[in-house]
Amino acid sequence: MRRVLAAAIAALTVTTAGAAATADPGQAAARSGWGRPALAPAAPTPGDPGLGDSYFPDYGNGGYDVDHYDIRLRYEPATDQLSGTTTILARATQDLSRFNLDFLLDVESVRVNGFSATFAREGVHELAITAPRPIVRGQSLTIVVKYAGVPSETLVNGYSGWTRTADGGLAVNEPESAWWWYPSNDHPLDKANWDVSVSVPAGVEVLSNGVQPRPPLAEAGNRMRWSWRSTSPGATYESFLAVGQYDIVTDTAPNGQPVVNAYSTSLGALGPAARASIERTAEIVDWESTIFGPYPFEAQGGVAGPVDGIGFALETQTRPVYGPGFWRRGSNTYVVVHENAHQWFGASVSVADWRHIWLNEGFASYAEWLWSEEQGEGTAQELFDFTYATYPADDEFWQVTPGDPGADNVFDGAVYDRGAMALHQLRLAVGDDAFFRILPQWTAAHRHGNGTVEQFQALAEQVSGQDLNAVFTTWLFTKGRPELSGSAAARTATAPAEPKSWARLRESHRLLAH
Ligand SMILES: [Zn+2]
What we know:
single chain, 26% strand, 22 strands, eleven-stranded mixed β-sheet
């Protein structure tokens, strides 16, 4: 995961007022029932242009909850021209005079429940929509947006979340990626499932999340239409689109699920290392399932992106996308472990607010430590000791608090490495028995939902029967290198031996964090 320029974007945009910071739109809808309130109706009001995220307050929108996106597109790799229609099935969670979507491409028309609606661009990425008829709380909404544009040339602060490549393009980014290919309620609080259908010239491949409900269909003009379907609820940043020249390998996982892996034909000499890593996805997911609980999605896989694509990797739901840099030193199962751990920690249990990013990156990084232990390449304790000794007490590394790193530091290296250290300290505090009960209980309790660091601490305390405030405060929320005592202090006082997995972990985190 990686986010680019999010902080700069947030700083530029207007801060929204009055958004309910902790409201889950779905829960709000459920609480409100289906009809109008019994009391005298108040005048409809505008939906908030954000969901009140503490780091990115105008990401997502208030006043409605999306159930489904039907994204039907046409794409020209030669020109990067993207056009199409997205149909959004949603439900109003308040009486609405207007509402917003997050989107950047040029909009041709918007219809709400069949009626033509007026629309206007506001702020950096807001599309404000006013329907001709009033919208009442609980009402079903069918929002049809027709649009077109060249996503790689649609810039925010000089930046596009869409990566154009020699053979196509990639919509892969965190937290901002949907803006460049479909209109959405772009915050993990509003989960939905989605269908993606893209028409491309014959001979071009299209990858996305989930399963293929049907094989690619021939269309007029020597074109093919590819279809993908996500049947589990997902956050918008977990969706992706990859168009280009790919070799696709399909298989069945030990749990019976479809596996779809794809390898850019541009990888050349990097191809075998990519395959030797990503082809182990089903094995790794199987292993992770024994630690984190049942795999939460309907399909598995991975996409090895092209040499001129992204420089990072992202845990896109059911099918992470990897940049080419991970294969330059040979095969790398650690990044596959990291991105697939995010299927539990990030994709299924998503942050309720971006300040809780430790729930994603700390856990995915600790999964790598557990894999190192499993592979006999260094125990989690050895990795903890070496990490601790690697960063002197006066290193800036210790100035970022993973529990609330700040909007500028969401993907700082400390969120990964100190984040993993924090989990290791929790494990030491509660013991292996409790620790390995806490993890699957957490993924079960918040499956396909959202979570906060405070909720995780409460669960850990409930399972262990211990007050863990000191561990969480020290390792997640206090600047500076925590003091160790006893044998731990002695082990880290002299330079510990470098675990075998260290160099590989270092290299991967250098690409993932920034
Ligand atoms: Zn990650």
